[in-house]
Amino acid sequence: GNSVTQMEGPVTLSEEAFLTINCTYTATGYPSLFWYVQYPGEGLQLLLKATKADDKGSNKGFEATYRKETTSFHLEKGSVQVSDSAVYFCALSDQGAQKLVFGQGTRLTINP
Amino acid sequence: ETGVTQTPRHLVMGMTNKKSLKCEQHLGHNAMYWYKQSAKKPLELMFVYSLEERVENNSVPSRFSPECPNSSHLFLHLHTLQPEDSALYLCASSQDVAFNQPQHFGDGTRLSIL
Fold first, then answer.
1. B84 SS3 class
2. pLDDT of residue A1
3. Do residues A76 and A18 make contact, with C-beta atoms less than 8 angstroms apart?
4. Could you tell me which residues come within 8 angstroms of residue B39 by beta carbon, excluding any fewer than 6 positions away?
């Protein structure tokens, strides 16, 4: 079946550091890939998405590239801010299943 | 006005109580979802509605009963819950159930079972 694996958290960085959160997936067919972010006390918000191989999703300085050959969708940001502290979820949606499958989430804390 | 609104934000109930969670979306979407978010576990999809018809029920115990009276409203009726049902319950909506449609989430109801 479909599955998403994210790097274990929590991740703690200093402000202005470079961020990478790894995400790999297993899916039949050609899934769409998403990153969602959950700030404290809130629901999930779509951060970015990519719907086909080699697409790059980007938003708020975050980027992720759909890599079919490595079945990965790693999240990156060049310079993180304290306000980026949140839980980040990688997810996929497969044409056959027609539903989102989430990774377990990675908690990110940015210290000033 | 936020796109997806959930009420109440917090709910404490005993195991013999009956209560309902409410979700309302103002986005004109046709699909709505209930998820359960527990600590240290992946997000669990509970129910999916498309055009007010239930299209998925992920082996959820019968003490959880969903209701979708129209495409803008979704309820989760709770009865005789167990302590392990304490969690954050999230509602979401999407334009339709097509696989590449992003979902828009509410802020959730934090449920505590005494």
1. helix
2. 80
3. yes
4. none
Q: What are the angstrom distances between the C-alpha of A94 and each of A8, B11, B25?
A: 24, 34, 24
Q: Is A44 on the interface with B (CB under 8 A)?
A: yes
* Residue B111 sits at the chain A interface (C-beta within 8 Å): no
Closest CA to A2 of A102, A104, A106: A102
Residue A28 sits at the vertex; the CA angle it makes with A25 and A31, to the nearest 5 degrees, is 65
Cβ under 8 Å to B: A residues 50-79:
51
Contact (CB<8Å) A43/B100: no
What are the b/e assignments for A1-28, b being 16+ CB within 10 Å?
Answer: ebebebbeeebebeeeeebebbbbbebe
B9: number of Cβ within 10 Å: 11
B71-80 mean pLDDT:
95
Distance from CA of A74 to the nearest CA of B (A): 18
Asked if omega into B66 is within 30° of 0 (cis), the reply is no
Inter-chain residue contact B42 with A102, CB threshold 8 Å? yes
pLDDT at B61 over 70: yes
d(CA A55, CA A33): 10
Write the pLDDT tens digit of every residue in A65-81. 999 999 999 999 999 99
Note whether B99 contacts A94, CB cutoff 8 Å.
Answer: yes
- Count the neighbouring beta carbons within 10 Å of the beta carbon of residue B100: 16
